[in-house]
Design a protein that fits this description.
The complex is a heterodimer of chains A (466) and B (309). Chain A has 466 residues and is an alpha/beta fold. Chain A has 19 helices and twelve strands. Chain B has 14 helices and no strands. Classes of the chains: A alpha/beta (466), B mainly alpha (309). Chain B: This is Sugar ABC transporter permease.
């Protein structure tokens, strides 16, 4: 008995050891580079625009981003012309823990070649804390950005006068989502000014208030980042009531949070967001805004069959298009669409937006070439074509709006391309993290959820400025 | 035949009847204490509370995407709807690549279980049966290492791996899991080895057995429950680990395990709940099978090791 048992244990141990060796061997041979698969000629693709990058056969560029499925596939597809024409291989890696993991990798010395930085504030942190890892934008990148982007975009990708990161995608935040069908049925016009907007809201209250409907619905819940949609409201309003110059000074805290100009803007936001007659259609009272996730905030605009909707307007960025349920027709004559969030008068039309930036952590020629490619119109158009469901735009002026499939993206591209409209980047993304990703969010949430007074909220945010 | 049965039949010379009576009395008391209505109801309430989130996840995973986005899972009871589409998409969808990550998880987990057990067995034997200078201090040091949180070692370790050129391979994950598991493994297995009666080892030595022979013929057969319990423990920990894998293996398809993929399944804007819930259940299958298959070792092995030390 004992000897049989012993032999069995021996056998088990031996099998285990053998298995370990086999697995070890497999792991050791696991080459992270899939080898030179590019054939260089690129078949039928038109490679003329790619000749400037030279022959990059056998070279690999790693890309690290915060964009995961399902939005990652269009990105991977958009690199194909580059890979086919130059022979380089692009290795894409997306992670939702990108912002923490990127810093870990930089610290440990295993930086990716290219990273998509979702906010300029992070770029500043990297330049300040890891100046040896990041490399300034390549010449080709710089030339492309000068040619195809407005100068303000270049400043957002620069730190202390050095240009590091080229703009990639963009989004427009100054949008109000509405239902064209319902507006038509009720004879409502799209408001051109702030006063029109308030008048329309009052009209909706008069027409539908008795049925329990409200003109506005909103949701600012977003996990750790709860409150950011409310900061967008205030940013949009500061642009309208105080203008771009004050906005720029506000970001650097030369205009304080408790400055009367900011207080005026917050009061205007309160006229809608804290007005119990106006909110929160289909979702509850004012405080329900804080409890509703931003994904769900606009859904009451869609009416159930044969019924009137419980909500008529929802201010949210262009990317909200992805949140409508499958089958919703997002078009100017469809179920939902967006209009430009009006300024105080029809003449001033500032635009609030956001976007990602491409930073390079290696000066190898293939990395420089790829960074330049991402700033080129070839990439912008390839990306537009490879995004069949829409939900993506770029501020690249070489982007042909015809390549964009969804009407909302086309509208965004038109607004981004309109140089008469003053564009400003999302302020909370540019402020120090203690405010822009901290007290600004939490205090705006308290403003809504607890009914904290305007003055208290602004004082508290100002006090937290580092 | 086994350590457990031989322990129960040890005759230590005291009057048998009274010892057994005392044991019976204690067992009866324990049974009364645990069997009371109050204790049972607390246990049942705890079990229900702990199961509700998983249950909600299960319900979510079989609801259509539109339902998940518009109402909570508890409304399923009033308006039941069923779809296997979520599982279908997770398992066969072109973008999820679950099979690749499933294989990666096994390739990561199996060596991460075998390596620390092998090393810890050898170390534990030395600590228990080979007298050498500084043994006590060294053992206390190993024991104390359990207190150190692994998080503080992440960045220095990664820096070191990059310097050695191991970055992006399975080695980083295997080595890290081994390093983090060793203190507990050595401690647990050492306690088991210490429990083996000295007379048994001495008898073997008198028969002419050296350390190697004692280790393989005396210790290993007796340690099977301990090894199995630690193996399950380590298997579950490595299989479910996200932090270590994310830091060292990153999200690269070549080496990342299932948990890394699972964490991304909800999508950039957290709107893919239907995939996340179904994916979670697919990932759960393996640990559940392992646990059920080896469950009887689990409690026995862990309890014996920790209490007797």
């Amino acid at each position: 008995m004992t000897s049989v048992r012993r032999r069995r244990v021996f056998a088990a141990a031996a099998t285990g050891a053998a298995l370990a060796l086999v697995l070890t061997a497999c792991g050791g041979n696991d080459d992270p580079e899939p080898g030179a698969t590019g054939d260089g000629d690129g078949g039928d693709a038109d490679c003329a625009a790619y000749e400037q990058y030279g022959d990059l056969s056998g070279k690999t560029v790693t890309v690290y981003t915060s964009i995961v499925s399902p939005e990652d596939q269009p990105h991977i597809d958009s690199y194909k012309p580059f890979e086919e024409c130059t022979g380089a291989t692009i290795s894409y890696e997306g992670s939702k823990e990108f912002e923490a993991q990127l810093l870990v990798r930089l610290e440990a010395g295993s930086a990716p070649d290219i990273a998509y930085i979702p906010q300029p504030g992070l770029l500043q942190t990297i330049v300040q804390d890891y100046p040896d890892t990041i490399v300034p934008a390549s010449e080709g990148t710089s030339a492309n950005v000068d040619e195809f982007f407005s100068p303000s975009w270049k400043t957002y990708g620069s730190v202390d006068g050095t240009f590091y990161a080229a703009p990639l995608g963009a989004n427009v935040k100054s949008f109000v989502w509405y239902s064209p069908k319902q507006f038509e049925a009720n004879g409502y016009d799209i408001p051109e000014t702030w006063d029109d907007l308030i008048a329309l809201s009052d009209k909706i209250v008069a027409d539908h208030g008795a049925d329990g409907a409200k003109p506005w619905c909103a949701g600012i819940g977003s996990g750790d980042a709860t409150g950011w949609p409310a900061t967008d409201w205030l940013e949009d309003m500061v642009l309208r009531t105080a203008g771009g110059d004050v906005y720029d000074k506000w970001i650097t805290n030369d205009v304080k949070f408790n400055d009367p100009q900011i207080a005026t803007a917050l009061e205007k936001v309160g006229e809608i967001l804290r007005n119990p007659d106006y909110v929160n259609g289909g979702l509850g009272d004012v405080s329900s805004i804080a409890a509703t996730t931003f994904q769900d905030g606009g859904l009451p605009i869609l009416a159930e069959d044969g019924k009137d909707p419980l909500c008529y307007m929802h201010r949210q960025a262009s990317f909200y298009a992805a949140n409508w349920p499958a089958g919703t027709n997002v078009a100017e004559d469809g179920d939902v669409f967006a209009f430009y969030f009006p300024g105080l008068d029809a003449g001033t039309r500032p635009v609030l937006g956001g976007g990602e930036f491409v930073a390079a952590f290696s000066d190898r020629p293939e990395v420089a070439a790829f960074q330049a490619f991402l700033a080129s119109p070839e990439w912008a158009n390839a990306k537009a074509v490879s995004t069949p469901n829409g939900g993506w735009v770029s501020a690249n002026s070489g982007l042909d709006p015809k390549n964009l499939v969804s009407p909302i993206d086309q509208l965004s591209a038109t607004i981004l391309g309109d140089t008469t409209q003053e564009f400003r980047f999302d302020a909370s993304d540019l402020m120090p993290a203690a405010v822009g990703a901290g007290s600004f969010w939490t205090q705006m949430t308290a403003w809504i959820a607890e009914g904290k007074s305007d003055a208290d909220v602004l004082d508290a945010i100002q006090a937290s400025w580092p | 035949m086994s350590a457990v049965s031989s322990e129960l039949t040890i005759d230590d010379g005291t009057p048998k009847g009274s010892a057994i009576d005392r044991l019976d009395a204690r067992a009866a008391k324990a049974r009364r204490g645990l069997g009371s209505v109050g204790a049972s109801s607390i246990a049942i309430v705890l079990a229900i509370l702990w199961t509700i989130p998983t249950f909600g996840l299960l319900i979510t995973s079989i609801r259509p995407q539109a339902d998940i986005q518009t109402s909570g899972w508890w409304t399923w009871f009033s308006s039941p709807s069923f779809t296997s589409e979520n599982y279908h998409e997770v398992l066969t969808g072109s973008t999820t690549n679950f099979s690749t990550f499933f294989v990666n998880s096994f390739v990561i987990t199996i060596p991460s279980v075998l390596i620390p057990i092998t090393l810890a067995l050898l170390a534990a034997y030395a600590f228990a049966w080979i007298p050498f200078k500084g043994r006590e201090i060294l053992f206390v040091a190993v024991f104390a290492l359990q207190v150190v949180p692994l998080q503080i070692a992440l960045i220095p370790l990664l820096t070191q791996y990059v310097r050695w050129g191991l970055n992006g391979t399975f080695w980083t994950v295997w080595l890290s899991h081994t390093i983090f598991a060793l203190p507990l493994a050595i401690f647990l297995l050492h306690n088991f080895m210490k429990d083996v009666p000295r007379s048994l080892v001495e008898a073997a030595r008198v028969d002419g057995a050296g350390h190697v022979r004692i280790f393989f013929t005396v210790m290993l057969p007796l340690l099977v429950p301990a090894i199995a319990s630690f193996a399950i423990f380590q298997f579950l920990w490595v299989w479910n680990d996200l932090l270590v894998a994310l830091t060292f293996a990153g999200g690269s398809k070549n080496v990342a395990p299932l948990t890394v993929r699972l964490a991304e399944l909800a999508g950039t804007r957290d709107d893919q709940w239907h995939l996340l819930s179904a994916g979670a259940f697919v990932a759960m299958v393996v640990p559940v099978i392992v646990f059920l298959a080896l469950q009887r070792y689990f409690v026995r092995g862990l309890l014996a090791g920790s209490v007797k030390g």
